[in-house]
Write a structure and sequence with these properties.
The complex is a heterodimer of chains A (about 475) and B (about 600).
Chain A lengths: L3 E3 L3 E3 L2 E5 L9 E5 L5 E10 L2 E6 L12 E4 L5 E4 L7 E3 L15 E4 L10 E2 L4 E2 L4 H6 L2 E2 L6 E3 L5 H11 L8 E10 L1 H13 L6 E7 L10 H15 L3 E7 L1 H15 L12 H9 L3 E3 L5 E9 L8 H9 L2 E4 L2 H5 L12 E2 L2 H4 L9 H25 L6 H18 L9 H12 L12 H7 L6 H4 L6
Parallel strand pairs in A: 9-16, 14-19, 14-20, 15-16, 15-17, 17-19
Antiparallel strand pairs in A: 1-7, 2-3, 3-6, 4-5, 4-7, 5-6, 8-10, 11-18, 12-13, 18-19, 20-21
Chain B lengths: L4 E7 L2 E5 L8 E5 L4 E9 L2 E6 L11 E8 L1 E4 L7 E2 L6 H8 L17 E6 L6 E2 L4 E6 L5 E5 L6 E6 L3 E4 L3 E6 L5 E5 L2 E4 L8 E3 L10 H6 L7 E5 L6 H11 L4 E9 L1 H10 L16 E7 L4 H20 L3 E7 L1 H14 L13 H9 L3 E4 L5 E10 L9 H9 L2 E2 L4 H5 L12 E2 L2 H11 L4 H25 L6 H18 L12 H23 L5 H4 L2 H7 L9 H28 L5
Parallel strand pairs in B: 8-21, 19-24, 19-25, 20-21, 20-22, 22-24
Antiparallel strand pairs in B: 1-2, 1-6, 2-5, 3-4, 3-6, 4-5, 7-17, 9-11, 9-14, 10-13, 11-12, 13-15, 15-16, 18-23, 23-24, 25-26
The chains are: A alpha/beta (about 475), B alpha+beta (about 600).
Chain lengths: ~475, ~600
């Protein structure tokens, strides 16, 4: 099947247009050779009897219509997988970037990845302790979850991702690995991740795929798929617990739009292709736990929201696919609160089944619900205070303001290397709540009130409720 | 198998093939060497456009396209309940056994197991005359549901032979008939029906009986009928899926069809793990015994997503025809509409709004109109209620799918981002939601739950509406400057929001019997009316606000309904306490005129 065709009809953007090639396969990988003999990889994106459209990953610079030859390989894009990949660094197309040569032996797998049969999945329930109070208590990360960080340019999403990766209880364990996919990221960011992730001596459990900002955008389509195929191999073949960090998903979507426009497709919202949802899903859905497997794939994709707009198609469609989101706030960051997690729009969908009795602590679910509700009230009260002045507020509202400040300074805020036990974080939560009047605590059960909220405390200060 | 055509082009899930003159519109085909399942969506002379239900990578021009001779169909018969199918009806349990954890392509396995053995009880005897839609035998499908084998619509005649009682395999013929023209017709145990065609009914009826859901905000404020249609729109994280799961668990339908359309794989797995162990609150049997799941997760092929809705509703119609009340959840119809858009875009059709094809509203209407309460061909009553989730981009309800859906539904449960962010769940907005079924189900509620249902419901809604304008004032100037009667409205509204409207989806409060909901509402509205009277007579609000009984009232939902006397007891104590406060006030006024 590896016939070579010399000469192409036209070259436009990243695309080569060839005549009808008998037996050219859709999504087939081709080898494109320029007149000087250098070769690059391409992918068939349209086949018909009259024309074949090939998208060249490394771009079409230096190719000429007459001098270019195309060899059809008969295969989809594949990657060679072996345990020897651990500790290695690869390009966005899977070529080694370090000096250790190609990965030998192992198995070859297409990077497209088939959908996991819902029958073959196991519902994720295992709590991952990240040591970050806001995440552990309010946005609990579960092994096998896909929980993106919605951030903005200039916010410390990289530091938070590194903190989660290094502090999670799984780190350091024999069967733990981090797969990192840098998609169109800056050289500095790549260096930061490499340094920090290898710092604790976990370098041997790290696989890096780097497509940098000045690498060809077309390659970005392949980078996360290579990383996820590797992660699936490590998890489901070797039984490791794999954390996949993919950043920046915004660059990925931009590349997808660039290609779609170049192909002349009918655009949907903001010029993104109509299949953006399906395409993102084909990445994000590749997380989870298998019923008959030992390992797991947990995903933390990072995306920078264009103009900090959460309704922009990229964060919007991501939020519809992933199992929650961690939203970072510019306002908290400006007040030097790290990690600046804006908890109200944030969510962990899998948390409800991975916390409470037998998982974290039985008081966890109600505490989390009450913290959310009370903090949400803080925002209302602050809005009111900015109109009428804080001094004019009633006692209950004053208590709410004090709670809000203590919550942000004491609970949300912690050091970039501070690793808090879940029990410690939960106790901090209870202490904060005990400052509020009882009738503000409607998310707690009567039993919680008796167990954790000391009668009379707070209530007297607030004045609104004088319990006998 | 028919003469084959040849593939001439491949563009994502859309193929073009030539040599297709013999084929018909909407016919199923097997495309390429991998034998991928597809469907003809356009015929143009010799050429056909085919949407493929499986991933098309690796398809080549020149490969054959073979017709299946029938449109996309679903097998109907015992074995549907408790099963999970993909968008085009392939059984995922069997697929797992055969192919492993990942869904592979070009696999051909029967939708229902022809070799499974079922306990059949014939209902007719040789010589009886049966018509289309009448039951001819029953099968104990699960301990919860008796499956009725129906004479297929359009088939009638005299029974020539019928299976004796006992165990028979799915592939067997249940009865042979001779129709009026002397032709022999068969009634198979497993029949087949084209999914895009609605199954016929005798008559459509007004849906006047509520579908009880065990969710207070729904049963109390925005009820849905058996045979009604409802939409749940909401941005991500507002709780569409959790609400859908709640309805699938607790609604009093006989059969539940749950379609996960372009959603998360883990959510389907959750249903698969949870439903077999959850008990139906009425029968005590596992919920899985009445449930059929259709799963097209977001990374499964987009054309199968478009089909999944039809596969699901066809199964729902089949059980409706047996005389059952079926509830169908479609999560999410937006993904289905987007699948239409994607295919339409690949066909190069001229888009209408936001890239959606101009026929989007027609398709939405066709789908929702397959719901309804009916008299079946067999003469019994059956119903399909549809609850469709809508995922508007950016939570904006003015987008085309939400807007057109609103034209064809009668019950709208709008999920509110603000409520969700403050963890008020279910985040069903009491201002944006509506139900047109309220008046139709009124008689039933008043007869079966509480005679005061309508007045309590009206009072609660009026109070919440009044509170909304009061909250606007509070946001501007604070609560302290308000007169006591407005403060009281805000207080009762907050009781309603915290103690009635909010309901945890996990834990003991997950299912609330309608009587318990009404009991809570009754005490809250009763408190408000009495307090209002006291304030009008000059009593201040503060001693009322400080009552311990109010804290208890806010937590009343935590009490199980098996002790209704606890509810009466609180009501009694609350009234007593309020009367005491009233007396104390009169006493102070009599003696303490100094205060003025």
């Amino acid at each position: 099947m590896s016939t070579e065709y010399v000469g192409v009809n036209s070259i436009s953007g990243p695309f080569l247009m060839l005549g009808g090639i008998p037996h050219a396969g859709y999504d087939e990988i081709v080898e494109v050779r320029s007149q000087d003999g250098t070769s690059r990889t391409g992918r068939v994106v349209l086949v018909s009897e009259k024309a074949t459209l090939v998208q060249v990953f490394a771009g079409t610079e230096g190719l000429s219509p007459a001098g270019t030859s195309v060899r059809f390989t008969g295969r989809e894009l594949e990657i060679a997988l072996s345990p020897a990949m651990l500790g290695r660094t690869f390009s966005g197309l899977g070529e080694p970037l370090d000096d250790c040569g190609p990965v030998l032996g192992g198995v070859r797998r297409p990077v497209g990845g088939a959908a996991i049969n819902p029958m073959g999945r196991e519902y994720p329930r295992d709590f991952i302790s990240t040591g970050v109070s806001s995440i552990d208590v309010l946005l609990t990360l579960i092994r096998g979850q896909k929980l993106p960080i919605f951030s903005g340019n200039g916010l410390p999403h990289n530091a938070l991702a590194v903190q989660i990766a290094t502090q999670s209880k799984l780190a350091g364990a024999e069967n733990f690995a981090v797969v990192f996919a840098g998609i169109g990221i800056k050289h500095d960011d790549a260096a930061y991740f490499r340094d920090r992730l290898t710092a604790g001596g976990h370098g041997g459990n790290l696989v890096l795929f780097l497509n940098l900002a000045d690498d060809p955008p077309v390659e970005r389509i392949a980078t996360p798929r290579l990383a996820l195929t590797t992660a699936e191999y490590l998890a489901f073949d070797l039984g490791m617990h794999v954390l996949v960090i993919m950043t920046d998903m915004t660059s990925y979507c931009e590349a997808l739009r660039e290609l779609s426009v170049a192909k002349g497709e009918v655009p949907s919202r903001k010029g993104y292709p109509s299949y953006l949802y399906s395409d993102l899903a084909s990445l994000y859905e590749r997380a989870g736990v298998l019923r008959n497997g030992r390992g797991s794939v947990t995903q933390i994709p990072i995306l920078t929201m264009p103009n900090d707009d959460i309704t922009h198609p990229i964060p919007d469609l991501t939020g519809f696919i992933t199992e929650g989101q961690i939203v970072l706030s510019r306002d908290l960051e400006a007040r030097r609160i790290y990690p600046p997690v804006e908890i109200l729009p944030s969510l962990s969908r899998l948390m409800k089944d991975g916390i409470g009795k037998g998982y974290t602590r039985d008081d966890h679910p109600n505490l989390a619900g009450q913290l959310f509700a009370s903090y949400s009230r803080v925002h209302e009260v602050r809005a009111l205070a900015s109109v009428v002045g804080a001094d004019e507020l009633g006692k209950a509202d004053q208590a709410s303001l004090a709670f809000g400040d203590a919550f942000e300074r004491g609970f949300l805020s912690q050091g970039a290397a501070e690793n808090r036990e879940i029990g410690q974080s939960l106790d901090m939560g209870w202490e904060l709540l005990s400052k509020l009047p009882v009738q503000e605590l409607s998310h707690l059960s009567m039993e919680d009130l008796e167990r954790f909220i000391k009668k009379g405390s707070g209530a007297d200060d607030a004045g609104a409720q004088a319990r006998p | 198998m028919r003469a084959a055509g040849r593939i001439v082009s491949v563009n994502g899930p859309v193929l073009r093939a030539s040599g297709m003159r013999e084929f018909s519109m909407r016919e199923m085909v097997h495309a390429g060497k991998l034998s991928l399942l597809g469907e003809i969506i356009r015929l143009d002379g010799d050429e056909a456009v085919i949407q493929v239900f499986e991933e098309t990578a690796g398809l080549r021009t020149g490969e054959p396209v073979v017709g299946a001779g029938a449109p996309l169909s679903m097998s109907l018969g015992p074995g549907l309940l408790g099963s999970i199918f993909d968008g085009i009806g392939r059984p995922l349990r069997k697929l797992l056994e055969k192919e492993g954890s990942f869904v592979s392509r070009g696999v051909n396995i029967p939708q229902l197991d022809p070799d499974a053995s079922w306990d059949v009880t014939p209902l007719g005897k040789v010589g009886d005359v049966v018509t289309g839609g009448t039951p001819i035998a029953t099968v104990r499908e699960t301990s919860l549901v008796e499956h009725r084998i129906l004479t297929p619509p359009g088939v009638e005649g005299e029974i020539l032979s019928i299976l004796p009682a006992g165990f028979h395999r799915g592939s067997e013929t249940v009865a042979r008939l001779r129709d009026g023209r002397g032709r022999e017709r068969v009634v198979p145990m497993i029949s087949s029906w084209p999914v895009r065609t609605a199954r016929p009914v005798a008559e459509r009826l007004l849906p006047d009986e509520p579908l009880l859901t065990g969710q207070r905000v729904i049963d109390g404020l925005f009820p849905l009928s058996k045979g009604g249609v409802s939409a749940i729109p909401g941005g991500f994280g507002t709780g569409k899926t959790v609400t859908q799961h709640q309805l699938a668990k607790w609604s009093d339908a006989h059969i539940v069809v749950y379609i996960g359309c372009g959603e998360r794989g883990n959510e389907m797995t959750q249903v698969l793990e949870e439903f077999p162990v959850l008990e139906d609150p009425r029968s005590g049997k596992p919920l899985m015994e009445r449930t059929v799941l259709i799963a097209n997760t977001s990374n499964m092929p987009v054309a199968a997503r478009e089909a999944s809705i039809y596969t699901g509703i066809t199964i729902a119609e089949y059980y409706r025809d047996m005389g059952y009340d079926v509830a169908l959840m479609a999560d999410s119809t937006s993904r289905w509409a987007e699948a239409l858009r994607e295919i339409s875009g690949r066909l190069g059709e001229i888009p209408a709004e936001e890239g959606f094809p101009a026929y989007l509203p027609t398709r939405i209407a066709e789908f929702y109109e397959r719901a309804g309460k009916v008299t079946t061909l067999g003469g019994t009553r059956g119903s399909i209620s549809i609850i469709g989730a809508v995922s508007p981009p950016g939570g904006d309800f003015t987008e085309p799918v939400t807007r057109h859906t609103k034209r064809f539904i009668r019950c709208f449960w709008a999920l509110d981002q603000q409520l969700a962010r403050s963890r008020h769940f279910p985040a069903i907005s009491w201002t944006d939601s509506y139900s047109e079924y309220g008046d139709e189900v009124k008689t039933w509620y008043e007869a079966n739950v509480d005679a005061a249902w309508t007045s309590l419901r009206d009072r609660a809604r009026a109070l919440l509406a009044e509170d909304d304008s009061i909250q606007q004032i509070i946001r501007l100037v604070g609560e302290d400057v308000l007169p006591d009667d407005q403060k009281l409205t805000a207080l009762t509204a907050s009781l309603l929001k915290n103690g009635y409207l909010q309901q945890g989806a996990f834990g003991p409060d997950s299912y609330c019997p309608p009587r318990k909901g009404i009991a809570i509402l009754d005490i809250m509205i009763g408190f408000h009316e009495r307090a209002k009277g006291m304030i009008a007579r000059g009593c201040p609000l503060s001693p009322l606000r400080k009552m311990d009984e109010l804290v208890e009232l806010a937590h009343l939902r935590e009490l199980p309904w098996d002790k209704p006397e606890a509810f009466d007891d609180l009501k009694r104590r609350l009234v007593k306490r309020m009367m005491e406060i009233d007396r104390e006030r009169l006493a102070t006024r009599a003696t303490g005129s100094v205060r003025l």
